[in-house]
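Let's study my pick:
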Amino acid sequence: MTTLGTIGRRGFLLGSATLGAGLVLPRAFAQAPLKVAGLHASPVENAWNSRLHQALQEAARDGAIDYVFSEGVGGTDYARAMREYAEQGAKLIVGESYAVESEARQVAADYPDTAFLMGSSGGPAGDNFGTFGTWNHEAAYLAGMLAGKMSESGIFGSVGAIPIPEVNMLINGFRAGVDAVRPDAKHLIGFIGTFFDPPKAREAGLAQIDAGADILFGERIGTADAAKERGIKAIGSLIDYTPRYPDTVFANAMWYFRPILDAAIADTQAGNPTGKNYTPFSLMKEGGNDIVFQKSMVPEDAIGPMEEKRAAIKAGEFDVPINFDEPA
């Protein structure tokens, strides 16, 4: 873990990484940069944390924020790290409270003048504890539509972390997209019991392939390794895995954190309460998620129906089902 209260091993974040296609342009910020701290339970290379980290980097490069961060912060240290950043003058602290809900909410109550924006399965609290969910289920649905037209066996595997609502919704969204074009589909579901264990995700993917799956949906990093090893196709989630697996990953259900971050920054700068649910900024119509895919790897007759549905989602004419239930 980086030393808390320092800039972190990557220093101030003026990196050159650009956000993916489909993201709305950043808002214009007229005020002085806001002091923002990122508190990451996993390494920033982890898919989910990389989305937050990259958006925060971009906001720093745009001059909207001054950004410091710590990564690999364990649950026993998380509340203490939140307190230290608040004591050091951070006006907005971005992180995740999934494993420390009660502790994180207590810290926010103790620092009412600091805004907190936390990935959470619970609701907001007070005037300063804002929450968000990772809603890229719309993009997963569209990826499922493509997958449904590509499978020969009709068996689809999905590898997830832990059956929390956001993970369940994502896998269920993928399944719904498959079923929309392949009603006879069979789905194999596996959870690895942790948020970051690529070898374990690979093993889960291999087990699904052995059971007949010829397309894998990888909610977790490592799933595509199994698909590559066995010569089948895979779908990525949150980030674009295609450059790493050019012959394996044909689509990605992308998630973009910047719209959520911009909304929280604007509220913090304006002195508005931030104790609200920022999840709606994850929706496709807000630029919060979208599909990216390789046309050369997808049957042409699958693209048209998917694009029609994509346009309908963006126009608010079609709602992808939200199903938080653990997939059977």
Summary: Residues 261 and 307 are 28 Å apart (CA to CA).
